[in-house]
Design a protein that fits this description.
The protein is mainly beta. 0% of the residues lie in helices and 51% in strands. The chain contains no helices and 26 strands. It has strands spanning 8-13, 20-25, 30-36, 39-42, 59-65, 68-73, 77-81, 88-93, 100-103, 108-112, 116-120, 123-128, 136-140, 144-149, 152-159, 164-173, 178-183, 189-194, 199-203, 222-227, 233-238, 243-247, 254-257, 265-270, 275-280, 285-289. The protein has a four-stranded antiparallel sheet with strand order 1-2-3-4, with no helix packed on it. A four-stranded antiparallel sheet has the order 5-6-7-8, with no helix packed on it. The chain is globular. The relative contact order is 0.12.
Length: 295
C-alpha cells in the first residue's frame, strides 16, 4: 500500500485499536490508516499534512494516546491532533530538532532533542538533561524510562512529582550502536536492537539476558523492533530489507520475511496478536499475518 511520496520514517499504533495505525514520512505527512473490508484507506480520503509547516520536512516520530496523536518533525515542532485525525489541537515549538518521541496510553509524552522533555495534554511538565546525546527511548507506564546513549542503555525511574529521573539500572552494553528499544507489554522484558545486527532481550527483574541465544540473523543493522501483545514474540526490521519474528519462549524459532521493504525497514508494530504492520524507505506500508508461528 502506498500513501507517502517518500520514505516512511515513523509508525505508531493506537492503544486499544486493532484496525488502524498512523505513519509519518519524509514528505512531511502524517497519515491515519484504517483497515476495512475494502482494505486500507487513508482516513476521510485525506491526511494530516497541514500539521507540519514544511511539506518537505521529515517526521521523526509519532505516537498515539487517549488524548490524541502527537508527532515531531524536522520543522522543530510538536503537533497534537485529534485521535481521528480531523483537527489539529496544538502546535508547540521545540528548542531544537527532535530525535524521537515516545508516549504512554495515559498521555505522558516524552520528546528527545538535546534533552528529554516531558509533556501532558500539550503542556510541558519538565526537562531532564542527559550526560550524552540520546538516540532512542522507551517508556514503561509512567514509572520508568530506558534511554539509549551510543552502545549503552540506561534505565531511570520517573518521579513526576519532583520532576526528576533516578537511575535504577544499566548501563546495558551492546557491541553495536543501539538503534531501538521496547518494553514487553507484560513488563517483564526489555528488547534492544543494534547496528551489530543483534536483537537482545533482558529481564527487568535482574537486568540479565533473558535470551542467551544470539539473535543475529539480520545481515545489516536492526532499525526497529516491536512486541506482540502476549509478550512471547519480538519482531525486528532491518537495513537488509527483512523482517524477523523471534520466539522468546523458544529462542531457536524464527520467521523471516524476505524483501519486506526495498531500501530497508524503518519501523514495525503489532496491531494484535498476529497482525504485524511494517514501514520502509520504499514509501510502502505492509501488513503480515504471523499466525503460522503460533502453531
Amino acid at each position: 500500500l502506498v500513501g507517502h511520496q517518500a520514505a516512511v520514517s515513523a509508525l505508531a499504533t493506537i492503544p486499544g485499536v486493532t484496525d488502524a495505525f498512523i505513519t509519518g514520512g519524509k514528505d512531511g505527512k502524517v497519515i491515519l490508516w484504517q483497515i476495512g473490508v475494502d482494505g486500507i484507506k487513508i482516513n476521510g480520503g485525506g491526511d494530516l499534512r497541514t500539521t507540519h509547516s514544511n511539506v518537505h520536512t521529515t517526521i521523526s516520530g509519532v505516537v498515539a494516546c487517549a488524548s490524541g496523536i502527537y508527532s515531531v518533525g524536522f520543522d522543530d515542532k510538536l503537533m497534537a491532533s485529534s485521535i481521528d485525525g480531523s483537527a489539529v489541537n496544538a502546535v508547540l515549538d521545540l528548542e531544537s530538532q527532535p530525535v524521537c518521541i515516545a508516549g504512554t496510553p495515559e498521555g505522558l509524552i516524552v520528546v528527545v532533542t538535546t534533552k528529554l522533555s516531558f509533556f501532558r495534554d500539550g503542556t510541558l511538565l519538565f526537562d531532564a538533561e542527559m550526560a550524552n546525546d540520546v538516540s532512542a527511548i522507551a517508556l514503561f507506564n509512567e514509572e520508568e524510562i530506558s534511554v539509549v546513549m551510543g552502545n549503552s542503555v540506561l534505565i531511570f525511574s520517573i518521579d513526576l512529582a519532583s520532576e526528576a529521573l533516578v537511575q535504577i539500572g544499566g548501563p546495558l552494553e551492546r557491541l553495536g550502536k543501539v538503534t531501538c528499544i521496547s518494553y514487553s507489554p507484560s513488563g517483564e522484558y526489555l528488547a534492544i536492537g543494534d547496528m551489530n545486527r543483534e536483537c537482545s532481550v533482558y529481564s527487568r527483574e535482574s537486568w540479565s539476558p533473558k535470551v542467551t541465544s544470539r539473535w543475529v540473523f539480520h545481515t545489516a543493522g536492526i532499525t526497529s523492533l516491536a512486541w506482540n501483545p502476549n509478550s512471547k514474540f519480538v519482531a525486528t526490521g532491518g537495513l537488509d530489507n527483512a523482517v524477523y519474528v523471534w520466539n522468546v519462549e523458544a529462542p531457536t524459532q524464527r520467521k523471516k520475511i524476505n524483501q519486506a521493504h526495498i531500501g530497508g525497514v524503518t519501523s514495525v508494530k503489532y496491531l494484535d496478536e498476529v497482525m504485524l504492520v511494517s514501514a520502509g524507505n520504499d514509501g510502502f506500508v505492509c501488513l503480515f499475518n504471523t499466525a503460522d508461528l503460533y502453531a
